[in-house]
Every structure is written in C-alpha cells, then in structure tokens.
Amino acid sequence: MLEKKNIKEWISKQNPKKTFKVMIIILLISFTGMIIFYLFNKPQNPLLNNVKPPAIFENSDKNIQEIEERKKVILKELEYFKNKKTLTRDDSIRIEYLLYKFNNVKK
After folding, report:
1. pTM score > 0.90 for this model?
2. Cα torsion 20, 26, 30, 36: sign
3. What count of other Cβ atoms lies within 10 Å of the Cβ of residue 78?
4. Which of 9, 35, 74, 91 could staple 87 via S-S, CB 3.0–4.6 A?
5. Contact 105/63 with Cβ under 8 angstroms?
C-alpha cells in the first residue's frame, strides 16, 4: 500500500490531469446519486400534512352555503353591536375579531 507521502506526491505533482478527472468523476457520481436518492425518497414536510385542498376542488355548492351562513351569523352579531348604545373594551375587541373573521370568510 502507498504511504501518505507517495499519495500526496502522486496527486499534486505527478498526475494533475488524472487527479482532476478522478475528482470530477467522483463529483458527478455523488451528484447523480443524490438526485436519484431524492427522486425515490422525497422528503416529507410535516407542515404540509395538515394542508386542506382549496375550496375549488371540494364541493363548491356546499362551501358557498357554509360561507353564506357564516357571513349571516357574523353580520347579525355586528348588527347587535351596532344597535348597542354603549360599548365596552371587550365589545370593541369582539367587533375587531368579527371584522377580521368576516374579511377572511369573504376571501
């Protein structure tokens, strides 16, 4: 077996072209191996497991009815606060929450 000095000498001084070719081949093999490994073993993101499909791909009639019902409930509650004469701090926080919820349902 070659000693460390002989290997360093062979790599650096005697055969730089062969060394370059060997290093390029090693890099190409490792990159193709990584790509093949990625294609067959795609990483699973735990954040994507809980993602629901968009409403477009679900029953759109059912979703439209649910959205309209939610809007009606929110609007009724907002109407209650509109007719109320004095508002407390909790009421204003609830109104902000309802407006935020209404904007999200509307989208």
Report:
1. no
2. positive
3. 15
4. 91
5. no
Side chain identity at residue 84, one-letter code: K
Token pair for residue 2?
A: 């070659």
CA 91 to chain centre: 36
The 10s digit of each residue's pLDDT in 9-42 is 766 677 778 878 888 999 999 999 999 988 887 7
Single-letter residue type at 45: N
- The Cα–Cα gap between 76 and 40 comes to 53
DSSP label of 11 = I
Please provide residue 94's backbone torsions phi and psi, each rounded to the nearest 5 degrees: -65, -40
- The C-alpha R_g of the chain, in whole angstroms, comes to 33
Cα–Cα distance for residue pair 97/12, rounded to 1 Å: 70
| Start-end of H helices in 41-88 | 60-83
